[in-house]
Amino acid sequence: xxxxxxxxxxxxxxxxxxxxxxxxxxxxxxxxPAAGLVHxxxxxxxVFVIDPSRPEVKxxxxxxxDEKASVGIEILKNKLEKLK
Length: 84
What we know:
Layout: H1 9-17, E1 22-25, E2 47-50, E3 62-65, H2 69-83
Parallel strand pairs: 1-2, 2-3
């Protein structure tokens, strides 16, 4: 699905390229061009997708959290704390 323009899309690309982890919350994975930003992530960077409808992401290192944002963020927080 094509959505509206993403402010600072091109400025976001190097931020994603240098990120240690990527977190996507909600419907961002089905609305382009925002959904395309994850494809700029380093191959070793885990991508956490928080969305109860589990959009398909064609990347390695994808961790799905099949919850609404309010619950999923807390689950993600707990997962990240265990990685420390």
